[in-house]
Amino acid sequence: ILIISREIDKEEFKKVMALMRSYNRQGAAHRHGLRTGFKVGQSVENGGVVEYFFGNDGNEPLHFDKFTSFLKELHEEIIRLEFSHYDVKSTNTIPAKDFALSMVASADMNHISKLLDRADTLENDPYLKHLRITFEV
Fold first, then answer.
1. Is 137 exposed, middle or buried (0-12, 13-18, 19+ CB in 10 A)?
2. pLDDT digits (tens, 9 = 90+) for 30-45
3. CB 3.0 to 4.6 Å from 98: which of 31, 44, 86, 129, for a disulfide?
4. pTM surpassing 0.85?
């Protein structure tokens, strides 16, 4: 019988974070578990997010619902910041080409050139070159 837990503790989380760091380029620079920069020498596992997840003493379990809610809110904030980056005149709209470029930014690197070429064609389309995109949640 397979039992899937809907919560993890701080030590389990730290193991997962270490494993994830070992598999990506940016994380590999922190494979020893220490920060660089502002709080040099402190463990990356003891940052504000870990305290938020596990409480001040680190003994609260992290429930699946709290974690997924956090990820959803983080994702929405990143999208909002991305939109704001392209909304240079604070009109609450961005050009269709800028919207396409923001989508291309998260695309597979193997397809970047083709996607950038497609984004460039938006400037030549009589309807799309004047189209503005709004941010709605």
1. exposed
2. 555 555 555 545 555 5
3. 86
4. no
